[in-house]
Design brief:
The protein is mainly β. The chain has one domain (10-305): Neuraminidase. It is 0% helix and 48% strand. It has strands at residues 14-20, 30-36, 41-42, 49-53, 57-63, 69-74, 85-91, 94-102, 104-107, 113-117, 121-125, 137-139, 154-157, 163-172, 178-185, 195-202, 204-207, 213-216, 222-225, 231-235, 242-245, 251-259, 262-268, 273-275, 284-287, 293-296, 302-305. It has a five-stranded mixed sheet with strand order 3-24-23-22-21, with no helix packed on it. The chain has a four-stranded antiparallel sheet with strand order 4-27-26-25, with no helix packed on it. It has a four-stranded antiparallel sheet with strand order 5-6-7-8, with no helix packed on it. The chain is globular and about 45 Å long.
């Protein structure tokens, strides 16, 4: 079973609890301002997943700002394009191949796709919805950062242009928590002058509508990093695996609880974590900003959740 991305507001944390280490750059960190979580609640309504397709979808996809529309990487299209796997747009259950190949991707809320290639770098496409699928431009990476796109493990694109990626190297804290190193790109166009190494290590990341970074580390803890660079731990109770932050404020996580096809999906309802009570498990989730949640299970079957 393979194992994206969830946040909780600080109001969820109550009391005071001490923890050491977690996501830092190798040295131990101790904080005492994190607290216990509110109880897990359960939804009363039965969730509704809509099946889309069942052929060769990789665990890399993203929703667009058009309802019931998204982009996926398909491993069953041959010959494979230069750069990775074929990129497809799914719209109203119809798939269209867009020129280019990627190994991971994300999309801003302005429908700009960012992706990494196995042929050497980071790319973006400002018009993937245009006839022909738009064109790709490469962002140059400085010499002291990975030059090959395969060295970037995950990419997350924020609505205001903040781009975060997980690198190949790993860092861990005193409690064993950590993950892949984090880079941020805040330049414009194809400039290589605005790459920053962010202290910390995570296994999965996403960016919300405010430009805050959220991630899950190697021991299932959930963290938030504000645009001012302040980290806080938000959750640690369910061995969280994947996180996604929707543009409309919706927040979802995959827990370590096994379900048919993957892991249980939880949602933040404004007061607590909520189990969606779906018998259908997912191994990948990605939210968009129009009320849709995308999911893929361990058999690479793609689903769309109609309402948050």
């Amino acid at each position: 079973m393979s194992a994206s991305k969830y946040i909780l507001p600080a109001a969820l944390l109550t009391g005071a609890a001490l923890f050491t280490g977690c996501f830092n750059d190798g040295s131990s960190v101790t904080r005492s301002d994190e607290g216990a979580l509110a109880p897990v609640a359960a939804l009363t309504a039965t969730p509704s997943w809509t099946f889309i397709e069942a052929t060769g979808f990789l665990p890399a996809f993203t929703g667009s700002t058009l309802a019931n529309s998204g982009f996926v990487l398909d491993s069953n299209i041959f010959p494979r394009p230069v750069g990775g796997y074929a990129l497809k747009r799914i719209y109203n259950n119809t798939a269209t191949v867009i020129p280019g190949g990627l190994v991971d991707l994300d999309i801003t809320f302005k429908n700009v796709i960012w992706g990494t290639s196995d042929q050497g770098g980071v790319f973006f496409n400002t018009a993937p919805l245009a006839p022909g699928g738009g064109t790709w431009a490469q962002v140059t990476t400085p010499d002291y950062y990975p030059k090959n796109g395969s060295d970037f493990r995950k990419i997350a694109a924020g609505p205001t242009g903040a781009i975060f990626m997980l690198g190949k190297a790993t860092v861990y804290g005193a409690n064993g928590g950590g993950g892949h190193v984090i880079y941020q790109y805040s330049g414009s166009g194809t400039s290589s002058s605005s790459w920053t190494l962010i202290p910390g290590g995570l296994m999965d990341i996403d960016v919300d509508a405010n430009g805050s970074l959220f991630g899950v580390n190697s021991i299932g803890e959930v963290f938030k990093r504000t645009s001012l660079g302040v980290w806080s731990r938000l959750a640690y109770d369910r061995k969280w695996k994947k996180i996604t932050a929707g543009g409309n404020g919706a927040l979802y996580l995959l827990s370590g609880e096994i379900r048919t096809g993957g892991y249980a999906v939880y949602k933040w309802d404004g007061a607590s974590f909520v189990n969606t009570n779906s018998a259908q498990g997912m191994t990948e989730i990605q939210s968009d900003d129009v009320g849709g949640l995308w999911g893929a299970n361990e058999n690479n079957m793609l689903y769309w959740y109609n309402r948050y």
